[in-house]
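[Solved] Which block belongs to which protein?

Original post:
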Amino acid sequence: MDTLYLVIPCYNEEEVLPETSKRLYEKISVLIEIKQIKNDSKIMFVNDGSKDKTWDIIEELHRTNHVFCGVNLSKNSGHQNALYAGLMEARKYADIVISLDADLQDDIGAIDEFLKEYYSGSEIVYGVRSSRRTDTYYKKTTAHLFNKLMISIGVDLIYNHADYRLMNKRALDCLSNFQEVNLFLRGIVPLIGLRYSIVEYARNERVAGKSKYPLGKMIHLAWDGITSFSIKPIRIVSGFGLVIFVISIIALIYILFSKIFGNTVPGWTSIAVSLWMIGGIQLLSLGIIGEYIGKIYSETKNRPKFIVSDILITKNE
């Protein structure tokens, strides 16, 4: 038997925490009872600078039952950073850590299979969604396109996997060596390269509340993933620039012939050539290159990804 920590990042989750904590406690109690995990296993909530009563609820849970523990970040640092903070704290005490979202759309029934794969020798176990029946058509479509896009540009991504995964202590120690400021754990964890397995599960509906991942945050996460793991966007811009250049040469020849045969108005030639040669493609190119330079700038500053203001944990004697 090994010590298990469940790590759950939370941002404004006061509506779901009462039910989530109840279900997770029932689950971990059963696992302890059937001797799948040790009795010093914990449920760790990471408060990502919530503006509601999320941290107050976590504090009350800890006071009531020490199986619950908490990590409080000083401000909102983003889902990936909050998750990383919890993983790094949990690895100090746990043999294995399972990360999942607070809304319990990740089926906790799959934890049994995670442990089965772990005890069979896997050091990382990925939870992969076999069904998205509870997702809207829009979310299904965008998720599918996101996965296809990331794989097509060369990111070593587990298809239909989010952040529901098991990692043992060695895998977490390896993860701690990755010092990126712009975290995209779905792409980083497969780079570790240890023995892994996949467990499929059906995605559930949220137990309460609304999604804390609106379109804007999803696009930001996707862009972070793309620019952190691939330079293909720059190569695409280069190819696009070459195509535009060839078209501009053809257009220039047409414009010159038009001028020779008098089919133009004064000034039209120079304006048309300028529009073809420069314009939108330059702005697009500069924008994408600027994104990569911005990422380099963020990395070179080497600022902390998060700051922990409070930790609530009581180790079993």
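(Second protein starts here: sequence line, then its structure tokens.)
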Amino acid sequence: MSKNVVEGTTTKEWQDKRDRYVAKGVSNGNLHIAAKAEGAIITDIDGNRFIDFAGAIGVQNVGHRHPKVVEAVKKQLDEHIHPGFNVIMYPSYIELCEKLSELAPGNFPKKAILLNSGAEAVENAVKIARRYTGRQAVVTFARAFHGRTNLTMAMTAKVRPYKFSFGPFASETYKAPYPYYYHNLKA
């Protein structure tokens, strides 16, 4: 790990391009530009190394460039690259849904759906629940985060930075307190 993180000329050039071409809505507190990542270490274009505690969402459990993931991606590239399942079906989608259905608890038939993002998954869960119950209201917990689409922002509790100045939001969303043990401790 570098003790003195230095912003090099190359980093500055990319930061300027980012400011010019990337919408501010994709906020990022770390202004370094990744060059390579392996396991839990990210190296920026100026050679500074960082431990990736955030896991970049999609690599959190296995680290960057895990050999088994790289091998699976290369194998998949020889077949096809993610056709839309709603346009044409493919076996691996069906097989993964089968596996998830088998792993899910309960002794009853189950089905699965694979989606692009957490927000899309949350919105589909709400649609399914509304259809099943016939009710429109959605109850979420205080301090919860659900996503950055209109409905998921309505469900998200934290106003800044997620919701401020973005309303109006979807109606019929209500917040309930979430049990938080540390708020009830006596000193």
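Accepted answer:
You had them paired correctly. Confirming on the second one: The longest strand covers residues 34-38.
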